[in-house]
Amino acid sequence: MPEQKFYLTTPIYYVNARPHIGHAYSTIAVDVIARRHRLLGDDTFFLTGTDEHGQKVERSAAAAGIPPLQFADEVSASFRALWDRMGITYDDYIRTTEPRHISAVQKLFQLLLDRDKIYLSSYTGQYSIGEEMFVDGPPGTIGPDGKPTETVTEENYFFRLSEYQLPLIDLIESDDPEKRLLIQPESSRNEVLSFLRGNVAEATERGEVLEVSASGKAYVPGALKDLSISRTSFKWGIPVPGNEKHVIYVWLDALANYMTAIGYGSDDPALQEKFNRYWPADLHLVGKEITRFHCVYWPAFLLAAEIPTPKSVVANGWLLFDDSKMSKSKGNVVRTETILDAFGTEVYKKQFPDSTKKEQDLFGADVLRYFLLREIPFGADGSFSFDAMITRYNADLANGYGNLVSRTLGLIVQNFSSGEIGGSPSGIARVPPLTKGNDTLAFIYSIDLRAHADTLVGLYQTENEYAFGSKLQRISDFIQKVDVFMTEQKPWKLATYLKTSSATTYPDAARQKEFEDNLRNDIVRLECILYTAAQSIRIITALLYPVLPFSTARVWAQLGLGDIEEAALNGELKNLEWGGLKPGTKLGPLAPIFPRADKGLAQIMIDMENPNAPKPEQPTPSRFVDETTTHTAPVPTDPTHPGAPPRTSGFADVAPGTTVAGSLAISTERTGTPSHSEAPASGIFANSAAHSNIPDTPQIAIDDFVKIDLRVAQIVVAERIPKADKLLRLEVDLGYEKRQILSGIAEWYAPEELIGKKIVVIANLAPRKMRGLESHGMLLAASHGEDGKPVLATFGEEIALGSRLK
């Protein structure tokens, strides 16, 4: 058994309604952490489950016309089925209606009662049904769930919470990792400590005597009140032992699951050993709205029972939809099943018609996992939208990671015998087979990427475990570096040259030898370029495995490395040294990894969420003018073809048309000679024909045109502007100076995919202020229709920065 254990839990989800992606968010985060600790060799135990007691469940069941247990059975089953469908790797699934839990909770209650930590009294107060808690305030006070509280008078058992004000403060503020309850993020820690300390400022103004904790910080003694831990106003709960007209407070009941699931309260020696092995929990991951319960009430119960407290509580933020928290009561939830079905069927199944439903579901789960962890800084609130998810998927996975894998491995299969990494190139005539291990050239071609890979691995292993977004950002940056490496080296051109030139002969023997020596060096160069890219892909794939378990398994197999799950269990994924991919490794069968998702997928998901909503009017197909004929734009060429140059844009290739200054922007002007009826006397590019679909634009003289200074620039910085949904702040390098330009393209372009692009700017446009920032210049882009996506004017060939367009 490994020396290091790691026990982690999700919140147990309340069964008053079925799951949505807010629940999936927390569960995905815990699954990623669990997978990572397993591959590190830790004895990892991952717990999830459902919280099934309380007045809210009792009322929901009554509204459904069924008994509470039947209601809980159905909803709990929907949670478990969803986690299984998503491939969540939990080790146990606890339900608070299980006998093992009920008996153990009664033992914990009795223990606290025997220790005189619980007493019987009565209480009148404002009770929030939605949050199952009393709230300070007069009748009608609005509770945390946004609904009016109810006045409740009850005989209750009370827990002596007030005794633990200072012990809890010291527990949280301790500098000793072995004696501390670590709360993350810092905002949640501060919120809990503020609650425990009381209102120090008001107490000071009133002249009250304050006390000081071990860290030297003041607190208001008595600010923490005793806590009611039983109810008599409803029956759906665990009865208090010896006084069954009371049921145990749902939060004492629910929180105890973290111990009851691993054997607390059991008479079975094996379960007792299990509890001693795994407790205390290393991580409780919870939603931020229940931080107080986990960081005040739960550790206080444990201190009173003389049971070790958890090591850490980490709170994730809320998912926002339409600028408000996603919640069942507001009706603004998004079902995880919608995303699994849409991406599984509309994206994956279309590429792989023979794929199983399980494969389609796991692919959809990967897309959701990546988006939530990449897009939302963990611990903060984050917005969710179908459009944003599709854009992120296409940019980072389809055009980034997937494109790099398909292109690199495709080139290896096309150009090396038997599809071996670092093997001898095929189709090269009369040149002796390449000897393995030309260390000099291999070092030259890998040194830069190897240094970047070592830096990436080091940061990944030392950074905060919950910094999912920044880690994925670094991986994305490294993918772009490998793309740049491939673009600079152009192995597809080198391979073509080798195949077409290898049969060349010279009558002069010396010249022939020189030619063959150079050819052999070019063969080594091609081998080293592709070997370097494949090594990079291995490291990228190992790092991405916890987040994208299904997709990385397919890449791992294509690399010829076998089963990634076995590699994780064997410790192979924690060995990320350069060179782990051995020369001569034979690639597995190749196939696309991330088929592109069409923007129309967003509407499909909206329709799935709102099946009875009226359908929006369908737009007509985009059209362009080529020569003298109007065509509907064809499907773009497959960007994963091995012979195509790397592409880092997050958007589909535009349809072929007249390029503007070597860019991919489409000209909508006619380039052929118009018919006699279309040609006005003043010039062939003006259009005044009533029946023409070409926009009527004013003519300008050549003197007007030359006043516009169009220059080649490169984007070096791109970032979003707070509270400006449409604007990006760009810094562009014109060769002779750098400029700041604000551009309204945030809806279509993610900042990271713009870095390094060479674009066309109007350099002599007068500066102007926008959102308090100066914008000096304008980008050129083409689009179709009033709401069409802008496509930046870029360059297909190398061009010096600052070059003027003429």
From TrEMBL:
List each copy of the TRNA-binding domain by range: 704-806
What's a single GO CC term here? cytoplasm
What single Pfam family name could you report for this chain, choosing any that match? tRNA_bind
Q: What class of enzyme is it?
A: ligase
Q: Which PROSITE patterns match?
A: TRBD (PS50886)
RNA-binding: is it a keyword of this entry? yes
User: Annotated Gene Ontology MF terms?
Assistant: ATP binding; methionine-tRNA ligase activity; tRNA binding
Record-linked SUPFAM superfamilies: Anticodon-binding domain of a subclass of class I aminoacyl-tRNA synthetases, Nucleic acid-binding proteins, Nucleotidylyl transferase
Q: Where is this region: Disordered?
A: 609-645
Q: Which GO terms describe its biological process?
A: methionyl-tRNA aminoacylation
The UniProt keyword set, sorted, is: Aminoacyl-tRNA synthetase, ATP-binding, Cytoplasm, Ligase, Nucleotide-binding, Protein biosynthesis, RNA-binding, tRNA-binding
Query: What does this chain do?
Result: Is required not only for elongation of protein synthesis but also for the initiation of all mRNA translation through initiator tRNA(fMet) aminoacylation.
Q: Which family does it belong to?
A: Belongs to the class-I aminoacyl-tRNA synthetase family.
Q: What is this protein called?
A: Methionine--tRNA ligase
Q: What is the lineage of its organism?
A: Bacteria, Pseudomonadati, Acidobacteriota, Terriglobia, Terriglobales
Protein encoded by which gene: metG
